[in-house]
Amino acid sequence: MKSRTDRRNIVRFCLLWTLFIAASSAIASPKTLPRLPIWPTFDYGLGESIGKREIQKQGPTDELFLWRADGEYSTVYLMGSIHLLKNSSYPLASMYEYVYDQCDQLVVEHYEPDEEQNARNILSKVVLSDNKTLSQYVSNGPYKWIRNFAVDNGLPANVFDGYIPEYVYINILYMTAENYGFNQSIGVDYHFMDKAEAESKMIYSLEGAERYDKIFSTSMSEQAKNLESFISEIKKGNVERSLNELVDAWVNNKHDELETVFLENKKDNPIDYNSSIRDRNIAWIPKIKQYLKQKKVTLVIAGAFHFFGEHSVLKLLEDKGYKVNQLYDVKIPEILFSEAIKSDNLSAVKTYIQIHPNLNRYYYDDTTSENTAYFPLHTAVENNKLEIVKLLVNAGANIDLLNNADETALDIAIRKNHTEIQKLLEDQMFKISAFKYSGQFKFDINGMKGATFLIEASADLKLWAPIGEVQGTGSSVEFTDWREAIFEKQYYRLKLVE
């Protein structure tokens, strides 16, 4: 049974590691110290308030460390990562790989392709000043152990002498983990960053070099205390077991175990929690909101502990009005989305709706030589799949989107004489929530704050005429139809102006 102290040290490292990706050239030596990674991310139950979930003692589940947040025209996937894995940890659940394949861009905690610049940023923070050495802060016994540790790992005995205890702490833990078979190069973050670099996908950061300031907010005495405590745990042989338990919990979706560790650490180390988790999560939300406004699919990967508690990224997004859903380790249908629609495969379509939440962007049909772009809703209407149309509309498919032929889904239904689908779509024309008539027609409709919308009108759902633009306020927009009421029926539609 691992000690609470042991868990405290390992978890503390997880929190620090999320702040710190060290360059391999950060310490000049015959054997350079490793480039440090990023650490885990974890889960909450669907349909419950994320910040209020009670811990339930449960075993592995099919709930992944993967969530989906939807904007008006965009989707952001949130992946809880673990930064060190073993070769035996692979392959990852297929859903992780599948979501990555769908994303247009990747966002990680910190991405600095220029390792020399990254090393300079780090060294500006970790080098001791005024000719001081590590031995002035660390007790004699632990200091001798550090020197022996360096030699045992092929480094000069004095390699750590010129660096602050926190930096030594992190490097020793990384090297210890590597000796146990854990490797940052195959950690979740680097696994997907390497893929993105190979495929020329854009990679962005949630934070820059300012992250390093957060590591060193504690006093030198506190840093030394933490380092000595960790060395004691290494001597007891607790570290390898703890790392194995953390990795096993992530790989096998043991959410309750990780949440328990998180809550223990939050209680025991409030300073670490505030600087490493709470403050950073709050700072990330405006950036994630920007990705939710783009017409792209974005995958955000961050350490596991950023997804727990009342200040979790998930809870903070929910507080901003976004719906966040957790994804499951479902079997990816062997048929393509377009084929699932055409063959009326409801089960496969439901799976694709879960993993393809942004139904308002083009998909590509690889079954054709032209690699044809399509909207799922248009395909369902074209093939007269009423139940699938219902599924797609209820899942947020926009009925006003125009395909390459400048047709809406309703246009297709009318042209193909699919009367049931036509009625369904007509009933989905945006609802007038408030109106009055005093020589002019006036109504309110929902609209995104700051966005510009074009109002079009039609008497027959075929010919549409622009009659004005309105600005969204976040809750509603108001527009007045200035024309004389000359038609028995009048339809309106709303388009977001690019």
Describe what this molecule looks like in 3D:
By secondary structure, the chain is an alpha+beta fold. The chain folds into 3 domains: 4-328, no CATH class; 337-427, Serine Threonine Protein Phosphatase 5, Tetratricopeptide repeat (Alpha Horseshoe), CATH 1.25.40.20; 435-496. Helix content is 41%, strand content 15%. The chain is built from 18 helices and 14 strands. It has helices at 4-17, 94-102, 115-126, 140-152, 165-179, 188-198, 211-215, 220-236, 238-251, 255-268, 270-291, 313-319, 337-342, 346-355, 376-382, 386-394, 409-416, 419-427; strands at 63-70, 75-81, 105-108, 202-205, 297-303, 324-328, 363-365, 372-374, 435-437, 441-445, 452-458, 465-471, 477-481, 491-496. A 6-stranded mixed β-sheet has the order 4-3-5-2-1-6. Strands 9-10-13 form a 3-stranded antiparallel β-sheet, with no helix packed on it. Strands 12-11-14 form a 3-stranded antiparallel β-sheet, with no helix packed on it. A hairpin with a 3-residue loop joins β9 and β10. α15 packs parallel to α17 (409-416) and α17 packs antiparallel against α18. It is elongated and about 90 Å long. Residues 1-61 and 430-442 have low confidence and may be disordered.
